[in-house]
Every structure is written in structure tokens, then in C-alpha cells.
Predict the 3D structure of the following.
Amino acid sequence: MHIEQHTTGQVLILKLIQARVDLETAAVLKTRLRESIAAGATRVLLDLDAVRFIDSSGLGAIISGLKALGGAGGLAISGAHGSVRDTLRLTRMDRIVPVVETEAEGVAELTRA
Amino acid sequence: MRRETLASRLKIDSRASELPRIGEALRPLCATLHLTPEECGRVELAVVEAVTNVIRHAYQNRPGHPVDIRFESSPRRLVVEVRDRGRPMAAEALPAAQLPEADGVDLATLSEGGFGLAIMKTVMDEVEYRSDSRSNVLRMTKRWPGGT
């Protein structure tokens, strides 16, 4: 899995360049999230625009990042669409983590947090 | 009314890189059943969760073992069976599985895993599991309005 990253204000944006986040690729996301948070990131936006499929392995990686934050700062998801957005809704993940349309909305959401 | 039943089979190896083949196998069946992309995506999710459990738990992440997936579709109904020859699942796992509570979520107790079975139960109308000395079989049935 390739993950591009940049920072806007205090928000670290991780853009997944990967069509599937499943058992094969979720560990990469989990490691990257935990390393970024260990390095000091407290507001993390995951851009899932390029992702076409996510399963419980991918959701587990996101929850792992949320737990690593330990309630400080925040984590949000942007760009989720189609099957990915449906899976976030189906699993109620969208009630655990803010899910927004655009990067700008995500940055605003996390800057308020 | 003619009731056509279509059956297909996908045999894969117990490795994560095989998971995309599930969606590829399902797409023609989804077209036959006239499922929306969302409905087809949910069925793919349920089957991927079932096979992921087989890889992780039945075969303990060891490649080189068979996973046999059988699809049987008739108008408004789809049955998927996932068979393996690994460790059987604990009897209480399937009835106990549930999605995480989303309201008033407690980070300390929020689990990073274990949603696979709950996703299958949420997406499909029936999920059954049986195990004998030869194999384990997870059978999932999805019905759509007007189906039997």
C-alpha cells in the first residue's frame, strides 16, 4: 500500500493510494497510523477517495489509530464513497469516527476538535 | 415462471492476496440477480469476511491450504458456502458476534477486531456453521424482496 502524506495547519492528511484495504494491506495502514501518532500527530485525516473496498481488517486499523490517539486530538475520514461509504455506515463506524466529504471539511472538523 | 438456478465455484489458496478473486467471481452473479452495486458490494464484504476468518483462524495465516467457495443463485436469492479443512470455529463465536456499540463509545474497550462475523450476520439473512471431522462449512443466505 502506498500512502501519501501532507499537513494542513495542525492536521496530518494520509491519502491511501490503494483500491483495497483488507487483510493484505490493513497492517500497513495500522503501522503508519501508529507511527505518525507516536511521532506527534494528534489530528489525522484519512483520505479514502482512492479506496474501492474496505473490510473489518481495514476498520480495525482505523480503530487502532483512534486508540493510539487516546482521546487526544482526533481522527476523521474524508473521500469515502460507494461501497466504502456503505461499509462505514453498515458497521456504524461513521458514528465512531467523523466521516466528511472533502479534505477541507475534514481539516475544519479536526481543527475544531 | 421459469426458475433458473446458477451455481459456480471458486477455489482459492489460504492467502490474503487471493481475496480480490471473490469480487471477480461475484460480479457475474450480481448481474444475473440484478443487484445494485451497493447490494453486490455488501455480499462481497460478507464473503471476504468469511474467507478472512478462514485464513486467519482456521489456517492461522498459513498459506497453502484450500478454501472452497460455492455460490448458488436463483431469482432473488443467493447462497454462499465457504469450506475449509482447518481449525473449527468455537461454537459460541457466531451467536455472540455483534457490531461495536457506536453510541457513547469507550475507546478503552473498543475492539480492533472481531467484527467479521457480525458483518456477515448484518449483511446476510442467514448465517450457519457446521463442522465435522473432514471440513468446516459456513453457509450464508441472502434474500431480496419477492424471493423465497
User: Anything to note?
Assistant: Chain A touches chain B at residues 20, 22-24, 53, 55-57, 59-61, 63-64, 66-67, 70-71, 82-83, 86-87, 90-93, 95-96 (CB under 8 Å).
